[in-house]
Amino acid sequence: MKAKVVHKGPVISCAQKDGVEMLRAEIREEDPLQRAAEHTSINVIFFGTLAKDFSQSARQGDVVLLTDFTIKKSPSFLRDRLHPCQLEMDGDSACVYAKYTYVSLNKLKPKTVVNVYGVVTFFKQPFPSKGSDYCSTLKITDQSDVKVGCNIFSKKLEDHPVIFRAGDIIRLHRFKTDVFRDSMSLLNTYGWSTVTFDGKTDSPVVPRTSSKSFHFEESDKRMVQELRQWAANQSWISSDLTVTLSSVQPGMYFDLTCQLLAKAVMDSRCILLKVWDGTKCQHPLLNVAVASDALEGESTVAKDRMNLTANVLVYDNHLEVARDLKPGTFLRFYNLHAYLQRAPDQLPDQPDHLSFHLHGGTSYGRGLRSLPAESPDLQSLKSALDKHVDLDENDEVNDGTLLEIWYTPPEAVVLPNDEETDAEADTGPSYTVRTCEHNSQRLTLARVKRSTPPLSCHVRARVKRYKPQQLYQCLKLFCSNCKTMIDVPDDSAVSKVFRESAKDNQPCDEQWAATSSASSREPGRTISMHISRDMVGESTHMQLIFVEGTTLDEICVLSRDYKNLVPVRSVNGRMTLLDLTAPFLFSGDKRYYGCKRCSLNTFQNPVFTGVETWDEQSVAEALGVQLMQYRLLIQFELEDKTDTLEALLWENAEKFFHVSAVDASGSQDLQDKIQTIMDTIQPPDSSLEEHPWLDLCLSVYAVKDNDRNQVCYQIANTEIREE
DNA sequence: GCTTAGGATTGG
């Protein structure tokens, strides 16, 4: 039997049936043709759990289907004149179905209770009303193309419809119609419920509701699919383009689907949400500095550096939702406002940064909500995030990795194409001058840190500190073959090698050499000098002399008078180079070292012909020694108003100081010059404000270190300004 | 079993 519920009584206890619960309802024939007939209403008695269920779920006005009832004589017929019979719903097989009929939105009559289906064209997340409840405001439409406003009031947030975006489909049960401003509107009324569905035609029809019980059957699925199909051909829904961080433009109000990385309470009216969607913003993103102990969630430093982190300031009424979000949650902002903002510490000629504000109020549906991780809307977001799995925050620079950079010379610097920007020339005084020809953008250090290598850029910064503080340690020996870098051995180590070699030394006797010997002051130690017989009579005569049995001091004295001195020792009468801890060549003020790893030591049969002028390179070649180069290496801790940054002075060091490393190795004057420059850049016992500004060209590049990319900064194309 | 809101940008 199909009929409308016209009356529903309370659940009472039946004394005649051992106190079992029962409920009386009156139902009436729905068919209009039957209405004129007699006895179109009849009583139904529900027993047991059926009574309770009916009481809870059925409402006056509902259409219900009853099956497997028993027809009994009505004991109240004489009194109510309703029907001589009544229907009794009892036992396992009796069943009652609610029969929902859905009204097209253009057929709504005022002041009626209806069920409708619609596509959501506008919605606001629930907000506190001025009364006692939260209010959801939405607008829906259907195939009739009529738009109907709808308000839903409920104290419980979880009872409100779960709408993720315009285009979602919603089913409303038991909503009361009324006229407002010449249009029909809907308001939830007793026993109301809502169910929503994703609006995409190809996604599965999965009802979203928090209702304890709701009816959902094949006919519902059909309704949803028909509405989806219709909506797909409507321009207002198909124009719904998704905005990502990579496509957002200044001034936009837009919806952002993203993942929460970290959050911090700024004040009583503002929460900062650090989010990302895996896409890189075209504009530099504003970073909002927060003390790390005030931040809940992971550090975003690596993502900041790659311009992946959006800092969203969430205000006022949205705090209630934002407060409860946990880092890692997927969420969507509605009507998020992006605009360019000047960072408080930003230099004048820098581009403005993109900031994000979820302003107070609910205009235009402004708000935010978390999205379930399995939401079909998250598929593209998740695949974008997956592309950054290597972005482990453990990559953050720490002291250990800094040390490694310090002792491991970086690989060749990759200079990218110049950024086509038109930065203004610097006006303030700088102790340095850039010599590069490119016109790269000038960036703050904070911005440099967020950039993605490789990159060439300009910065203006002061040197806060530098390493090594003992400047003589900045002079290094570098093997261009195996990239080994070592400190220049100190005199005590070198002099020890000489003493060991001179001990119990018998002059060596080589066929290729002419030798002269003399006794030293110490008994038993003979000093010998050898010249290649090949060279005798040539112009190179006396250019290259092999010295045996001297101390370090003695060979230094000798080197005042002879151009190239190679210290040697005798092993079983054969001439051999000293341990390569010692220089293999003394040349005037300079000492040259060989690489222990790469030197072949072909000294056994040296060839000394065909050389016009002997220098360290030709000597090294003749002896089978891999010559090590002198290099300068200093690490600057740069600072500007935005950040600090450790930058190496390495490839460009000699140009920077206008000093050659090898010359400095033998010249106190040049070493003093470097010291003077450093004392100007970073005056001893001075505050940072007293340090001069430096205009610097910076190379940002990645170095593979234990299979991990380490970002390095090197000062390039920059020189000291010498008056 | 009343009332709430009834779309329409903050101004940080």
Top keywords for this entry?
723 residues; alpha+beta; OB fold (Dihydrolipoamide Acetyltransferase, E2P); 5 domains; seven-stranded mixed β-sheet; five-stranded mixed barrel; 15 helices; 16% helix; 36% strand; elongated; DNA-binding
Description of the molecule:
- By secondary structure, this protein is an alpha+beta fold.
- The chain folds into 5 domains: 2-99, Beta Barrel (OB fold (Dihydrolipoamide Acetyltransferase, E2P)); 105-237, OB fold (Dihydrolipoamide Acetyltransferase, E2P) (Beta Barrel); 252-378, Beta Barrel (OB fold (Dihydrolipoamide Acetyltransferase, E2P)); 432-472 and 632-720, OB fold (Dihydrolipoamide Acetyltransferase, E2P) (Beta Barrel), CATH 2.40.50; 488-625, no CATH class.
- It contains 15 helices and 37 strands.
- Helix 11 links the parallel strand 27 and strand 28 (564-571).
- The termini are far apart.
Which range does the strand content fall in? 35-45%
CA radius of gyration is 44 Å
- Report mean pLDDT, rounded to a whole number: 87
By DSSP, the count of extended strands is: 37
Biggest β-sheet strands, sense, barrel: 7 strands, mixed
Distance between termini? 106 Å
Shape by Cα distribution: elongated
Count of discrete alpha- or pi-helical segments spanning 4 or more residues:
15
Q: Strands of the biggest beta sheet: in what spatial order?
A: 5-6-3-2-1-4-7
Task: Give the helix proportion (percent range).
Answer: 10-25%
Could you name the ranges where pLDDT drops below 50 across 5 or more consecutive residues? 393-426
How many domains would you count in the coordinates? 5
Structural class: alpha+beta
Q: Assembly state here? A: single chain
Keywords: Chromosome, DNA-binding, Nucleus, Telomere
InterPro entries: NA-bd_OB-fold, POT1, POT1_C_insert, POT1PC, Telomer_end-bd_POT1/Cdc13
Pfam families: POT1, POT1_C_insert, POT1PC
Family: Belongs to the telombin family.
